[in-house]
Amino acid sequence: MTKQNVVVPEINTGKQVATAQKPPVPPSGYTAISRKKLLHNVEVNSGGRINSWVDSMRASSPTHINSTPSLSDDQTSWMVQHPSALDMFEQIIKASKGKQIVMFLDYDGTLSPIVEDPDRAFMSDAMRATVRKLARYFPTAIVSGRCRDKVYSFVRLAELYYAGSHGMDIKGPSKGSKYKKGDEAVLFQPASEFLPMIDEVHKALLEKTKSTPGAIVENNKFCVSVHFRCVDEKKWTELAQQVKSVLKEYPKLRLSQGRKVLEIRPTIKWDKGKALEFLLESLGYSNCTDVFPVYIGDDRTDEDAFKVLRERGQGFGILVSKVPKETNASYSLQEPSEVMVFLRRLVEWKKMTLRRQFRMRRQIEDVFSYLT
Ligand SMILES: [Mg+2]
């Protein structure tokens, strides 16, 4: 694995040291269940045991992690391994020197708060204004598990790249982006053959889960989400059984998990990490060494993108989380409000840099005209 240069604080002294970060070791004690193992269990499709499914659903619930008694010690050690991107801002900027920053942003839980009704996961006007400014200074993409049209209806900024359905539905800016390459519109849908199957599964899941109060089935075009954030925990086993009974008829679909959501998607090797690579290529940075991608996300599905950055040894991932989680991200932010502060600081830093460059150019021109 390629080493990734990040800066972490030394404990107690507050002094900062540059170091090649190893893959983070999960702090012991905060969860008794190995996420990797659970994910494997649920991803074997119909072969997975129901208990494993439900354990995995519990592991993805922050309330359970919160209730672990030894959290504060673990939180401290986790924060040393994944320091706040706000505290490390200057060092992050230093690491990006001379490189083009490209921004990748997850939506739910990153730009908008997690809410009970997924149809009402609106972003604030302040966040929208921040993202608009961000896209003025850096190529910016929204990468979400949601259907692309749905996430666009929340964000409503035509100058961004959008990768919906976990990256299986990618579209370039419709207007107003200076980073758009050529006149060609970027449109990429690697799982289009699955569309009829996804529709069928969506209908079957709607029917099957209607007896479980609070279950919400969402058609995300190239994948289906079964949200259980409003389902009583006593009913999780029942819901897992319902989803499993539908899924066993579809060996070409697989199950993965996000925050209080079961995701059903095609078995093709495509995820948010591949979407990130595709977008970098579309922007003309596929083999570039002077690119600095920054990916911010809160979800297990964002780990694929964090992993890609770690393996490329370029840029870094920022996990949005209030609690310790096993992650390939290098830094952390606690919640969407901190994401907004981080993005604003990036914009301010870029504005100042451009102003300084402009002033210097003017001074050089003045000196030159004086001499001639
Ligand atoms: Mg998310």
UniProtKB/TrEMBL annotation:
InterPro entries assigned: HAD-like_sf, HAD-SF_hydro_IIB, HAD_sf, OTSB-like, Trehalose_PPase
EC number(s) reported in the record: 3.1.3.12
Necessary cofactors: a divalent metal cation
Coiled coil regions in record: none
GO molecular-function terms, A-Z: trehalose-phosphatase activity
Catalysed reactions listed for this entry: alpha,alpha-trehalose 6-phosphate + H2O = alpha,alpha-trehalose + phosphate
Gene3D superfamilies: HAD superfamily/HAD-like (3.40.50.1000)
UniProt superkingdom: Eukaryota
Keyword tags: Hydrolase, Stress response
Single GO biological process annotation from the record: trehalose biosynthetic process
Metabolic or biological pathway, per its Swiss-Prot or TrEMBL entry: Glycan biosynthesis; trehalose biosynthesis
Pfam families cross-referenced by the UniProt entry: Trehalose_PPase
Function: Removes the phosphate from trehalose 6-phosphate to produce free trehalose. Trehalose accumulation in plant may improve abiotic stress tolerance.
UniProt family annotation: Belongs to the trehalose phosphatase family.
Protein name: Trehalose 6-phosphate phosphatase
Organism the protein comes from: Lithospermum erythrorhizon (Purple gromwell)
